[in-house]
Amino acid sequence: MTKVTYHLPDGTTEQVDVQLGETLMNASLRNNLPGIVAECAGSCACATCHVHLPKEYTHFFAEPTDEETDLIAYLDAADDDSRLSCQLVVGDCDAEIHVRVADSR
Asked: Where is the 2Fe-2S ferredoxin-type domain (predicted)?
């Protein structure tokens, strides 16, 4: 399992064990973490699972699809680290990954 530390909008952190093949969105929902709404249930259609993934962790995940990139372009809080957590599928790694949950307020 991969350990993922979620830096939450309220300034707290939560570390979660994420299973191989699970998305960061599903792991967040499974652990009742605040901030990831996931209105479309992970179908890459709403961008309510917006997170900021620091560059040092991008190699653990697939490149963003055109669909994901298009959705991110409409977000006010988007930056170069923006990703949708529904598209971040955990692979086989033993590293600890950090992700900052976007403030959706």
From this structure: 2-103
Structure tokens at 33: 């973490």
* pLDDT tens digits, one per residue of 65-87: 999 999 999 998 899 999 999 99
What's the CATH superfamily of 2-101?
Beta-grasp domain (3.10.20.30)
Query: Closest Cα to residue 36, out of 10, 2, 8, 77?
Result: 8
pTM for the model stands at 0.94
CA dist 101 to 47, 81, 92, Å? 12, 11, 22
Domain boundaries, the chain: 2-101
Tokens of 76: 């006010």
Quick one: tokens of 51?
């997170």
Other CB atoms within 10 A of residue 103 CB? 11
pLDDT digits (tens, 9 = 90+) for 7-29: 999 999 999 999 999 999 999 99
